[in-house]
Amino acid sequence: MSLSRRTFIEGGAAAWFAAGVLAACGSSSDSAGSDSAAGSVPAVRSTAVAGGATEAGFDAFLRGRGYTAAAAAPLITGLAFNGGLRYDDDVRALSERTYLRQQVARTEDVAKKATPGTLPLFSIIGLDTSTPALANTATDLVLEYLTKVVALDPTRLRVTTTDHSSAFFPRLAQWGILAPQIRLRPWEVAVKDGSGSGYFAPAGHPDAPQVASYSVEYVMPDGSELEIAEVTHSDGAGRSSGGIGVERVEMARTGKTPQWADRLAELRRVVQDEAKRTGVALPPGLAAIAG
């Protein structure tokens, strides 16, 4: 029986631990704030403020590091895939020192609307991870933001992936994500699933991505896990990106998950406003998601 990504995360993954692969990152002599842990990333300048709220979002954090914003793509794509709605960020818009904040909506999420944290419209902030060096930098930036700015407890972070992402395990350990917090899926299962947390290749995607990945989850107060980041990574032969889910990070920070219905009106407004402004037809995905 195949093991879906969601079943794997929600049902537990102890049986899939691979101690031999993870042993190398079981301990670290460097702290997350050391030069060896953060690579070329400068020391933290953003700080958490009273009540856990942060001074800046991930986009502002990145601008403080010298990054500039790439132009987001329209939410309406005009393509048959995903009901004509934007599924993810456009990796082609990214370069080494840019980030992309993109609104997306996924028709497949209708089937998951009762799952806490699932929203009909959400935002992702992505970075270029098309080479090992860029993927390492993105890993450091994402984890520094999550642990130092948002001030999430590193012991409550989890990573789900395959052994094809093992090169990142020592780096994750330097940010407090140790061997017992990393769950391995069999490579063939992740490839067959294609939804991330090991391998990203959504069926029918117009760009046909086929790239290894790792996801970052956060253990919520009720013990459930919420995916808050996904880093796909390439070896330089293709394009890939990685980053955070803006609303998901806020859910992890506050411990509160809004309901699916709470954001349906915003989805309708955003799509209808864009259609009116650009003169394109309303995409069928809007009705599929919002009714």
What is Rg? 18 Å
- Gap between N and C termini: 34 Å
Alpha plus pi helix count? 10
Q: What's the rounded overall pLDDT mean? A: 85
Q: How many E strands? A: 9
Proportion in helices? 25-40%
Task: Report the structural category.
Answer: alpha+beta
The poorly predicted ranges are: 1-55
Strand content: 15-25%
List the helices and strands in order. HHHHEEEHEHEHEEEEHHH
Q: How many strands, what sense, and barrel or not for the largest sheet?
A: 9 strands, mixed
Question: Tell me, what's the shape?
Answer: globular
Structure description:
This protein is of the alpha+beta class. It has ten helices and nine strands. It has helices at 5-11, 19-22, 35-38, 58-63, 132-149, 169-174, 187-193, 246-254, 264-278, 284-290; strands at 68-69, 98-104, 122-128, 157-161, 182-184, 199-200, 211-219, 225-233, 241-245. Strands 1, 2, 3, 4, 5, 6, 7, 8 and 9 form a nine-stranded mixed sheet that branches. β7 and β8 (225-233) form a beta hairpin. The longest helix has 18 residues, at 132-149. It is globular and about 50 Å long. The protein starts with a helix and ends with a helix.
